[in-house]
Design a protein that fits this description.
The complex is a heterodimer of chains A (about 400) and B (about 260).
Chain A (H helix, E strand, L loop, with lengths): L1 H9 L3 E6 L4 E4 L1 H7 L3 H4 L10 H18 L1 E10 L5 E11 L6 E8 L1 H83 L6 H30 L6 E4 L1 H16 L5 E4 L5 E4 H17 L8 E12 L10 E11 L29 H11 L3 E7 L3 E9 L11
Parallel strand pairs in A: 7-9
Antiparallel strand pairs in A: 1-2, 1-5, 3-4, 4-5, 6-8, 9-10, 10-12, 11-12
Helix pairs in contact in A: 5-6, 7-8, 8-9
Chain B lengths: L2 H4 L3 E3 L5 E5 L21 E4 L21 H15 L4 E6 L1 H12 L4 E7 L17 H14 L4 H4 L10 H7 L8 H12 L14 E7 L6 H10 L3 E9 L3 H4 L1 H12 L1
Parallel strand pairs in B: 2-3, 2-4, 4-5, 5-6, 6-7
Antiparallel strand pairs in B: 1-3
Helix pairs in contact in B: 2-3, 4-7
Classes of the chains: A alpha+beta (about 400), B alpha/beta (about 260).
């Protein structure tokens, strides 16, 4: 046994034993010589004392988990740190031992000065080659992708241009071609009522009332649709939005125009973001109005608005493109009647409405969605019947692309 | 896209509340094998590998997406969506602490609480802030990793583990162990060690447990205390366990502290 221990001391490689906690319980002569430590400097210390900072990370994230789960590791490259701070490249093997009462790990080190130089050269060549290959592959891929994207984009622009023209044309149709006949019908109907005297027949009265109501409804719908068509054609300059101010303004407008009163508005700390102020204000106005129209009769209406900045992918449609940029997530949370969560998407559809008693045409949320998409954002609603509704808007903080595409 | 296959998702356990275990940089879901057995009676256990780690589908790796911790957070959110998880307990080791934090800010309703094991908001020192590392340390780490690619097969070797009590998981445990692709591992290292999430800490709304190890070189005590100071909802526990992997070196203490926090 004494001879075995003496051999261990004279081994031409470093040998240490450390326990579960990483405390060194044995170090042979070679370790001490190579690293310039006295034996008593190492015993009782953490094994990490022998490692450079970066090797400690590697030890914690790879070496130790592997050793713990696999019970051995071999041919691991680590840079050890001598007492004077000099880095020493080592090849390391380690293995669980059950020789002593406590489980420990036996670990042997061989300095690899010469091999290290050779490996470094190999790595450098390999790295350069990999880089060239990758860049080449990437460039070829990008060229193909660019060609394809340009083609797709060109097609989409043609369609969009056509659509946009049609859309504007539709606006004009509403403005003149449809509104004018309605105006005439309304005018001549009124004059007919005045000149034809009072109808006596009950049936006749009913019919005339229906016609009159229908004319009113048509006028109202026309106005609303016109509003919807015009809202995003009004470009307006992009400015920094003072969110809290705009919401307060929208609230004042709501109280003035619709006589809604007693909304308790709780505004959290809301960061500024870029947008077209008039349009964004319209969104806030519609959201507040919606909340007011769907108020729970049994409790005072409370609307809490909060916001947080998160990084989201600026690409919304391209499936394999990622560019995380700062976005603002604004939440409008009310304690109104709420609605069935099945309709969370439906409520944003044009002329879709759930609350027949609200009197509106079902335009508000569709309008909001149009404005938010116009700002490259998304809007969604989450609702629980009896508890209330939360509308969540996510918008980029900056409207112009803020990233450098070459980074 | 089959998220379950992509992220090698495993779902089991007898409880209804989900408990998601997210591994850190270096390895895969195997890291949690000493911890989840203590919770499987009361929780629905969710294990997974990030794309590019463990036994995930490496072909789904997108270097643009995973050049940001937000891409990794999206993995977590994708899994929550796919499995329709609500009010989950998220347990994240190391960099997964910040990944879970980002996910909880983006989609709060998926989560109930966060358990952060050895988290750090930034690894590199900055003015008044002590992260524990200099830029040059991180560059040297990348070199160390590269040097080990020569013997990288070690990390791909089957991990032979005793698993008599859970035979159905036996097959999975003999598959590869660590980061499988050197290029991906390098990018994960860069994203991890160059990240800075200090600005996100005060956005956290969920209760969070910070498990801080003693003498953790990767996430030193000052870092854990910094996190605690900047997260109003956090509970700070300094562990007796040393090193960066208490879930491997001190599973009992880790389990005990998580249980205390959850009750």
């Amino acid at each position: 046994m004494i001879q075995a221990e003496s051999i261990l001391e004279q081994l031409p490689c470093g040998c240490i034993v450390f326990n579960e906690n990483g405390t060194i319980t044995y170090a042979n002569h070679m370790v001490c010589t190579v690293l310039g430590y006295k034996r008593e400097d190492l015993l009782g210390q953490s094994v990490e004392i022998m490692l450079t900072l970066s090797s400690r990370i590697f030890y914690q994230t790879h070496f130790f988990p592997l050793l713990k789960l696999n019970e051995q590791v071999s041919e691991i490259f680590l840079t050890l740190r001598s007492e004077s701070g000099r880095p020493v490249p080592m090849m390391v093997n380690a293995k669980l031992t059950s020789e002593s009462a406590q489980p420990g790990y036996v670990c042997v080190f061989s300095p690899i000065w010469e091999r290290q130089k050779y490996e470094q050269q190999l790595l450098e060549i390999n790295r350069a080659q990999q880089k060239a290959l990758q860049e080449n592959k990437l460039l070829i891929q990008l060229r193909e992708q660019l060609e394809l994207n340009q083609f797709e984009l060109d097609r989409k622009i043609s369609i969009l241009q056509r659509r946009s023209e049609e859309y504007l044309q539709m606006g004009k149709v509403f403005m003149h071609d449809v509104q004018e006949p309605i105006r005439k019908i309304s005018l001549f109907f009124d004059s007919y009522l005045r000149t034809s005297g009072n109808p006596q027949n009950a049936n006749e009265i009913r019919h005339l009332t229906v016609i009159s109501k229908s004319i009113q409804r048509l006028k109202f719908l026309m106005g609303s649709l016109l509003d919807f068509v015009q809202i995003s054609s009004d470009e307006g300059a992009v400015t920094l939005i003072k969110t809290a101010d705009l919401i307060s303004q929208a609230n004042t407008q709501l109280i003035k125009e619709n006589k809604y009163d007693g909304i308790e508005l709780i505004l959290g700390d809301i960061p500024e973001f870029e947008g077209r102020a008039a349009q964004i204000k319209r969104v806030f106005f519609e959201l507040l109005k919606n909340a007011a129209q769907n108020k729970d009769p049994n409790r005072a209406l409370r609307i809490a608005v909060s916001a947080v900045v998160t990084e989201e992918n600026a690409y919304q449609n391209h499936l394999s493109k990622y560019r995380y940029t700062d976005h603002i997530k604004i939440e409008f949370n009310d304690n109104g009647t709420g609605f069935d969560s099945r309709f969370e998407d439906y409520v944003f559809g044009l002329l879709n409405k759930l609350n027949a008693g609200s009197g509106g045409p079902g335009l508000g949320l569709a309008l909001c969605r149009q404005i938010i998409s116009h700002h490259y954002g998304t809007i969604k609603a989450k609702s629980i019947i009896g508890e209330g509704t939360t509308v969540i808007i996510v918008l980029p903080l900056r409207q112009a692309p803020e990233f450098n595409i070459y980074t | 896209m089959d998220i379950v296959k992509r992220n090698n998702v495993k779902v089991f356990g007898e409880g209804s509340q989900p408990m998601i275990f997210a591994h850190g940089f270096g390895c895969g879901q195997h890291m949690w094998r000493y911890i989840w057995p203590a919770f499987e009676k009361e929780y629905k256990i969710i294990l997974f590998d990030y794309v590019g780690s463990g036994n995930s589908d490496v072909t789904a790796y997108n270097s643009e997406r995973y050049s940001s911790l937000n891409g990794y957070a999206q993995d977590v959110l994708d899994i929550c969506h796919q499995l329709d998880l609500k009010n989950s307990v998220f347990v994240g080791h190391s960099v997964s602490g910040m990944v879970g934090l980002l996910a909880s800010i983006k989609e709060p309703e998926f989560f109930e609480s966060l358990v952060l094991v050895g988290p750090s908001a930034r690894y590199i020192d900055d003015k008044q802030y002590t992260g524990g590392f200099q830029q040059t340390d991180i560059e040297e780490l990348l070199l160390t990793m590269e040097s080990n690619y020569i013997g990288w097969a070690n990390f791909l070797a089957p991990a032979i583990m005793k698993n008599d009590e859970r035979p159905e998981l036996g097959a999975e445990l003999t598959e590869s162990f660590c980061s499988t692709d050197p290029v991906i591992a390098r990018q994960f290292a860069k994203v991890t060690f160059l990240s800075d999430n200090r600005k996100d800490l005060d956005k956290v709304k969920h209760p969070a447990l910070i498990l801080q190890c003693s003498q953790d070189i990767i996430a030193p005590v000052q870092v854990g205390q910094f996190l605690h100071r900047h997260m109003a909802t956090s509970v700070y526990r300094l562990m007796q366990a040393t090193g960066h992997c208490p879930h491997l070196s001190a599973p009992e203490e880790t389990i005990k502290l998580i249980k205390e926090f959850l009750t």
